[in-house]
Amino acid sequence: MATAGKVIQCKAAVAWEPNKPLVIEEIEVAPPQADEVRIKIVATAVCHTDLYHLFEGMPKDGFPAVLGHEAAGIVESVGPEVTEFQPGDKVIPLFLAQCKECRFCKSPKTNQCELAWTRIRQGAMVGKESRFTCKGKKVLQFAGTSTFSEYIVIHQIAVAKIDPAAPLDKVCLIGCGICTGYGAAVNTAKVEPGSTCAVFGLGAVGLAAVMGCKAAGAKRIIAVDLNPDKAEKAKVLGATDFVNPKDHNKPIHEVLAGMTNGGVDYSVECVGNVEVMRSALESCLPAWGVSVIVGWTEMFDIKIRPPHLISGRTWKGSMFGGFKGKDGVSEMVKAYLDKKLQLEEFITHNMTLDQINDAIELMKQGKWYHILVLFINQWVHFK
Ligand SMILES: NC(=O)c1ccc[n+]([C@@H]2O[C@H](COP(=O)([O-])OP(=O)(O)OC[C@H]3O[C@@H](n4cnc5c(N)ncnc54)[C@H](O)[C@@H]3O)[C@@H](O)[C@H]2O)c1
Ligand SMILES: [Zn+2]
Ligand SMILES: [Zn+2]
């Protein structure tokens, strides 16, 4: 490619400071170094974790940054030592790397690669390395990915090669929300056929958890959200009941216990609120209920009375749905191409990078939106 080995100037949405709109800027993206891949991003979606960094976590050392971590694209060029990828490959960047060499990658018990940015980050949700500059300043790569940019550079252990037949404007969702929610039900909770489940929070992650509970054979799936507009989509994806905590004057775990003869078998928290995490645990049957925390916050502690666990409940956490990065993404892309996974249902808007602040605003409002896909570059050429 004509751009290989050269600095690329392109558009990116830069978060200069917390709690402010993103600014579309011309940035410079350096060529990939050893073991790195430069990717032309074709489609990216917005996940609540991007909003968390910008409006909730707001770490002092986390700006300026380019947000975004749920995307698909095409390899533009590769650095020295890269053998797995070639220009033209369709790929999904991974916020959770899989080096395949470390003790964690070699264990079936975890997806937490020791080399992933999540382990080597500075404290903020940004890594130490970045190939971005803008107006003479280094711009950080959020979640190691930064997909609100036309081009990114990323380590090859954090890239999944996908089937060339995959439509990038759909499978981009597999880069975070879909794997996270679906896997939390299937891999982490290990939902059993005939069981009763509750999913708290019906953004893309929670809706994917509903889809995972259904795929695992759950008999009853109770979807819980403060926003009544989320009920319809949850039902399309497999929810059998919808409960709005605002409609009840007693704690939500008591409402669910009343509906389920004492509690659900599995609950999945997809909000990122420590009170909801506690409610999700308490909504489980005391004898054997399993509750999975998926929602993200680093700001508050969670509290629970010991008997709530001593009685027999299990409390678990799940990152990226327990999927190992590269393996999980290719498995889920295959499931989509085999028509075993719904993705279209999650897409409510197609927008451009220039509309990124509108996309963020829509997501903040919640309304009836579930996820927003932004088509950056000339994505139509790559479908
Ligand atoms: N663990 C991981 O690997 C991982 C990956 C991706 C996202 N996340 C986290 O998952 C969470 C969900 O992400 P998303 O993109 O689907 O978010 P979202 O903002 O689209 O959806 C959150 C939903 O929760 C609902 N909600 C808010 N307060 C509630 C309450 N008290 N009770 C019930 N529902 C409530 C909102 O109405 C909304 O529908 C976020 O915290 C995000 O950071 C975690
Ligand atoms: Zn995400
Ligand atoms: Zn590893």
Automatic annotation (TrEMBL):
Any GO CC annotation of this UniProt entry: cytosol
Protein origin, superkingdom: Eukaryota
Gene3D superfamilies in the record: Medium-chain alcohol dehydrogenases, catalytic domain, NAD(P)-binding Rossmann-like Domain
This protein's record includes keyword Zinc: yes
One Pfam family from the record: ADH_N
SUPFAM superfamilies in the cross-refs: GroES-like, NAD(P)-binding Rossmann-fold domains
Biological processes, Gene Ontology terms: formaldehyde catabolic process
Domain Enoyl reductase (ER): 17-374
Cofactor(s) the record lists: Zn(2+)
InterPro entries the UniProt entry points to: ADH-like_C, ADH-like_N, ADH_Zn_CS, ER, GroES-like_sf, NAD(P)-bd_dom_sf
Keyword flag Metal-binding: yes
This protein's UniProt keywords: Metal-binding, NAD, Oxidoreductase, Zinc
MF-aspect GO terms: alcohol dehydrogenase (NAD+) activity; S-(hydroxymethyl)glutathione dehydrogenase [NAD(P)+] activity; zinc ion binding
Protein family: Belongs to the zinc-containing alcohol dehydrogenase family.
Name of the protein: Alcohol dehydrogenase 1-like
Origin species: Kryptolebias marmoratus (Mangrove killifish)
Taxonomic placement: Eukaryota, Metazoa, Chordata, Craniata, Vertebrata
